UniProtKB/TrEMBL annotation:
It comes from Leucopsar rothschildi. PROSITE patterns: GALECTIN (PS51304). This is Galectin. Pfam families: Gal-bind_lectin (PF00337). Residues 25-157 form the Galectin domain. The lineage of its organism: Eukaryota, Metazoa, Chordata, Craniata, Vertebrata.
C-alpha cells in the first residue's frame, strides 16, 4: 500500500489517517474481528530485547481494564512465546508450548493473527506456530490492537 510513503501528503493529514507506528502502539480494528479476518504485524526486534507483546482487546479501557481476547508475549530470556487472555479482570491459563522460538534480536519479523471460527491461528514469518482457542465469544467486540515492548513497528495491516 503506497499511501504510507506518499511524501506529497501534508504531515498533519498523514497523521490523521496513518498514525505513526510508535511503540507502545494502540490502534482500532475497524469492525472488530470475525472469522477470516487477519491482522498483520511487521517489525524489527530491538538489539537487546527482553520482551514484546501484541494484544487484541475489547476496547481501550484501562479502568476497568478491557477484556484481552489474546495477548502474545515474546520473552527472550526464556525463549518463550506465551499467550493468554483476560476476561473480567481474570487472567486465564497461560499457554507457552511452541515448536521453536522464531524471533531474533535485531532482525525483522512478520506475525499474522488469523481469526477462524473456533480459534486464532498464529503465523510467524509464514510458518504456523500455534492455535489459540477463543475465550471471548463475541468476536466483533475485539476491536483494539495494542503493541508494546522491545521492537520497532514497520507495518500493520
Amino acid at each position: 500500500d503506497g499511501h504510507l510513503n506518499n511524501s506529497l501528503a501534508s504531515p498533519v493529514q498523514a497523521d490523521v489517517y496513518f498514525p505513526r507506528l510508535i511503540v507502545p502502539f494502540c490502534g482500532h480494528i475497524k469492525g472488530g474481528m470475525r472469522p477470516g479476518k487477519k491482522i498483520l504485524v511487521m517489525g524489527i526486534v530491538d538489539l537487546n530485547p527482553e520482551s514484546f507483546g501484541i494484544s487484541l482487546t475489547c476496547g481501550e479501557s484501562e479502568d476497568p481494564p478491557a477484556d484481552v481476547a489474546i495477548e502474545l508475549k515474546a520473552v527472550f530470556t526464556e525463549r518463550q512465546f506465551v499467550r493468554n487472555s483476560c476476561i473480567a479482570g481474570e487472567w486465564g491459563e497461560e499457554q507457552s508450548s511452541i515448536p521453536y522460538f522464531p524471533f531474533i534480536p535485531d532482525q525483522p519479523f512478520r506475525v499474522e493473527i488469523l481469526c477462524e471460527h473456533p480459534r486464532f491461528r498464529i503465523f510467524v514469518d509464514g510458518h504456523q506456530l500455534f492455535d489459540f482457542y477463543h475465550r471471548i465469544e463475541t468476536l466483533s467486540a475485539i476491536d483494539t490492537i495494542k503493541i508494546n515492548g522491545d521492537l520497532q513497528l514497520t507495518k500493520l495491516g
